[in-house]
Amino acid sequence: MSRNFESEISKAFEQLLKNETDYNVIIYIGEEPNIKEFHAHHIILRCRSEYFNKILSDENIKKKDGNYIIENSNIDPQSFKSILKYLYTGHINITNKNETELLNILIASDELKLKRLTKLTEEFIIEKHHQFLQNDPVGILQTVYYRKFLVKLQEFCLELICYKPKILFNSDKFINLPASLLEIILKRDDLNLSEIEIWENLIKWGLSQEQEFNQEIFQWNQDDINIFKGILQKFIPLIRFYEISSEDYYNKVKPYEGILSKELIDEILKFHMVPGYRRTLNIYGPRHSNYGIINNIRYDIIIIYLILRQLIVKLLNHPRSHINYSIIFITIRIYINYEISSFFSKMKYYQAIIDIINFIIFDDEINPISPLELPPPKLPSPHLVLYILLLILLILDYFDGVIVFKTLYSIWACFFYHRIIAR
Fold first, then answer.
1. Alpha carbon distance 299, 156 (integer Å)
2. What is the pLDDT of residues 26-79, one digit of tens each?
3. pTM higher than 0.85
4. Is residue 420 very low, low, confident or very high in pLDDT (cuts 50, 70, 90)?
5. Every domain of the chain and the residues it spans
6. How far apart are CA 99 and CA 79, in angstroms?
7. Does residue 290 have a pLDDT over 60?
8. Residue 130 — very low, low, confident or very high, per pLDDT cuts 50/70/90?
9. CA 20 to 30 Å from 28, out of 97, 308, 398, 419?
10. Per the CATH hierarchy, to which homologous superfamily does domain 6-128 belong?
11. pLDDT in tens, 300-340
């Protein structure tokens, strides 16, 4: 007979950390004036962290009164407190942390070579994407982008900003965005803003970079124009001027023609005035954001996947036992269509929804079905309701719409359960 006393051991180690019994390591974390002192046991640190194992095995490590002395100014003290508890107990609560605290834990865990905790925290941040970046998009972008180990999170942040650009562009801190990050964002083809909105935000950012600029451009002298041109020079080629209407160009771009090259101005004039004129400038073509009515497919399809998984759980005891494996096929289907493919289309989105419904509910194999020729339900009317509810998701804004969808889905699920399964 064997028993698991893991929880008792964890509690004992937590008390050891709390009471600081026989500690022999003093750790100074943070920078002045926010330096905190922590006490720990070298044997536990060496066992739990590659970082501490390397430091504590060094013969030249600093000692004072028989205690090992470790200093690290790159880690936030509050984050280290949570991580130190994790090293002793194997437990850490990140669900109650805000965006900044999560990033600090992520940075600290990487610094301390805690690969499992780093991965867990990064995945949690991405999973909670609807809250991420909201409070301090500029600060978080800077924190994430300048750390090479956060490649996955970097791309996630950029995709989220392109999906919901107002998170960044409507922020009071947008004007503090470093030029290098703004350049990266403006190069994106999936930035979900009209080109004239991008231009207006670029102008807003540029004006804020020099305090002496008069907001009324007609009062500028040539020196002002030259300074402003220097600020925005590397961003001008990133604007798709061909996508700006002649009316918007006249009202919102023409006042700033002083910062544009004569060649570019002449090109834009020809484009709008000469029928059939073929563009010759601008290396960047039109942006191809496909969000709009179908939202961000990669995120919304996951919502559908999670909702349908709840239905599968309820059907586990149903005679159609093969349904247990459907989740695998759905995952593969989503991965192939939406991760490998370089573009997303409304038709593919309809297609995926129809395939999933038919496979889970109707016993159909995953075969191509025309989205314009929806097959009639093979089971009673509740399934027709499911079709309608899933298609409603296509026209709902992601953050608000999914709440409505879940509510409608709950009503349908109860109806389906009583009509089909419970009878």
1. 11
2. 999 999 888 999 999 999 999 999 999 999 999 899 999 889 999 999 899 999
3. no
4. very low
5. 6-128, 194-289, 292-421
6. 12
7. no
8. low
9. 97
10. Potassium Channel Kv1.1; Chain A (3.30.710.10)
11. 444 444 444 444 444 444 444 444 444 444 443 443 343 33
Place of tokens 């009639």: 376
* Amino acid at residue number 177: L
Q: Which two tokens stand for residue 75?
A: 């880690």
Tokens representing 10?
């964890």
Which two three-digit tokens encode residue 283?
Answer: 């290396």
